[in-house]
Q: What sequence folds into this?
């Protein structure tokens, strides 16, 4: 079901995907807007506080993972997961991440097999978050 929340998250992820593909960085201003939107949704009562806290916990774990792996998963990606987790909640962010990591793994296998890219090749992750979010919305 398309709500204002899902439409705004989709448009936000599209903008972030374009920026991530072009510059491989996400500006801090994007996260300020996302954090403000997350807080407004919680204050309006559109989000369940316990599920939002669980989604935030997943984002904090991703930030910790980024720190431990020296940005194997970038800080921008982790902050985006944190903001998205607050908005959509614990169970949906887990489904989004599972779909995103699976589609990124398929893309990586394609790059290794067909394009002969090495293990050190990096690519933006936000488009896969968009794919995961759209998959969760449609299912």
A:
């Amino acid at each position: 079901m398309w709500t204002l929340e899902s439409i705004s998250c989709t448009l936000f992820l599209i903008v972030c995907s374009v920026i991530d593909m072009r510059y491989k960085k996400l500006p801090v201003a994007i996260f300020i807007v996302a954090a403000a939107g997350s807080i407004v949704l919680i204050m309006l009562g559109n989000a369940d506080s316990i599920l939002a806290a669980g989604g935030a916990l997943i984002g904090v774990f991703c930030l910790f993972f980024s720190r431990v792996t020296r940005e194997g998963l970038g800080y921008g990606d982790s902050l985006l997961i944190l903001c998205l987790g607050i908005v959509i909640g614990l169970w949906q962010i887990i489904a989004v991440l599972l779909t995103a990591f699976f589609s990124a793994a398929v893309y990586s296998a394609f790059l290794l097999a067909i394009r002969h890219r090495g293990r050190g090749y990096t690519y933006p992750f936000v488009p896969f978050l968009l794919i995961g979010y759209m998959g969760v919305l449609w299912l």
Remarks:
- The chain has a mean pLDDT of 88.
